[in-house]
Structures are given as C-alpha cells and as structure tokens.
Design goal:
single chain; 8-stranded mixed sheet; 3-stranded antiparallel sheet; 7 helices; 13 strands; globular; disordered N terminus
Length: 265
C-alpha cells in the first residue's frame, strides 16, 4: 500500500508530495528486514558500515562521518529503549551521507528525511539509499536546517560540535525542538577520555549515563525542551584533516535524548 507523507515545507512553501512503498526487502546483511522484529546490533552496525562516507569532507563544516558503531548504538537506544524509530517519521538534520536516516529506514521507520547544506553529501546519500534498498522511504533535501519546517516524530542529529565555529550546534538544537517530539542529539563532551575509557571497561559497555551540561540544560529548557537522558560514549574517527596528528582520533560525545515539553509540563 502506498501512503502519503506528512506535509514538509521549505522556506515557507509546501514541497511536492512524496510517497513511499513499504519495502520488506531492505538488505541482505544477515537478513535485516523491516519486519519489526528485534535486529541484532552487530548486524545493524555491519549494514551501516556499508553506507559510504563523504568523499571530500570540509573541516569548517566539521563533516565527520558518524562511525557505524556509534550510529548503531544511537539507533538501538532510540528503537528498543524509547520506541522512537519503528513506524515513525524521522528527520536527520545535518545528515551527511545518510547513516542515521538510512539506518532508521533499515530498522523500520515509516519515512525519513535527510537535510544537509552540502550538495556532495546529499548526492552520496541518494546513492547510499538506493544501494541499501530504502530509496522509497528516504528523502533528501539540500538546504540549511533553518529553512526546514514541518512536524516529525523523531529528530536525529550529529551536528557540528562548534570546534571550528563556536556555537554551531545551537541552531540545530533550536530547530530540532521546533520540528520533533523526541530529539537525539550528539554533542562533544568535556569529560576526560582516560577516565571515561576506564569506566567503560569496568562496566563492559559502550555508553554510560551522565548528567547534562548545565549550559545545554538551560538552552534546551529555554527552547521548550526537557532532557530525558544523557549517555556518554566514545567516538573514533580516522585521520581526516591536516590538524589531526594521530592515525585515529578518539573523543567522548554525549548523546542527549530530549522531548518537547507540553503546556502542562
């Protein structure tokens, strides 16, 4: 059965209507299919690793392709802890080449919309969606996130951390709270890598619940949000830019799980 998507507007104008075809054959990576059954995290990680990264990332845009293990961890938490992916409409802000949006579609999202300002990223995302057999339920928009309007069940985002441009992540938080009912947003942590790795090893897990940053807590509250949880996790990216001194770069990120407050809150 073919269904119509929710209305999505760009710069105040309604976009053309988009449709998707419910596709049960998504990928043959250990038979990940949209059957709404439990997907093994390792199989999801392997599938996401096949999604091509950005071929020419730009440092000033902080275009770090999210590692497959980090993307799988986020999607697993969103799906099986908070029920925010299966049969939901998803927006992926600053989507890059589509790992979070496509990963959501692989698990069973109803429809996903990826938004990025970079033309090359959007072009690669199109190809990745076709390669992973989720083309009918993934839509790609080349635009600044400020231009997007609409309503989504869930917003996923790996925004610029503000290392190259101070405060670059703030507008993503503000926009996500205007668009989504539940938001999953990655932010650079101020915690010590060494101490954190020790805690991870002691617990035998990839993430640890942590308190939120006071600054982000105030900012999120100011824009009508409420933090449900924060999980710290280790992210590893390869050497990408001239200022990277090591073969790989490890750092801690905090995953903020936020919901939009209601008037009764």
């Amino acid at each position: 059965m073919t269904k119509k998507s929710k209305n999505l507007t760009l710069n105040g104008k309604r976009s053309h209507k988009m449709t998707y075809q419910h596709n049960t054959e998504i990928t043959k990576e250990r038979e990940i299919t949209n059957t709404h059954s439990l997907v093994r995290k390792l199989d999801l990680e392997k599938a996401i690793s096949k999604i091509e990264p950005h071929p020419t990332p730009k440092a000033y845009l902080e275009q770090y392709t999210i590692p497959s293990e980090t993307a799988a961890e986020i999607l697993y938490i969103a799906t099986y802890t908070y029920n925010d992916i299966i049969d939901k409409t998803i927006a992926d802000l600053g989507c890059g080449t589509g790992r979070l949006a496509i990963g959501s579609a692989l698990i069973g999202a109803k429809e996903t919309f990826g938004v990025d300002i970079d033309r090359v990223a959007i072009k690669v995302a199109h190809k990745n969606a076709e390669k992973m057999k989720v083309k009918e339920r993934t839509h790609w928009i080349m635009a600044d996130v400020d231009a997007i309007q609409g309503s989504f069940d869930t917003v996923l985002q790996n925004p610029p951390f503000g290392v190259q441009r101070r405060g670059a992540d703030r507008k993503f938080l503000e926009k996500s709270l205007a668009l989504g009912h539940r938001i999953y947003s990655l932010h650079k942590s101020g915690k010590s890598n060494r101490d954190f790795v020790k805690r991870l090893r002691r617990r035998g897990t990839r993430f640890i619940p942590v308190p939120p940053s006071p600054f982000l807590k105030r900012l999120i509250k100011k824009h009508g949000g409420r933090i449900k949880a924060v999980y710290a996790m280790l992210m590893t990216i390869p050497h990408m830019f001239d200022f990277h001194r090591e073969r790989k770069h490890e750092f801690i990120v905090d995953l903020y799980i936020i919901e939009r407050s209601t008037p009764s809150d």
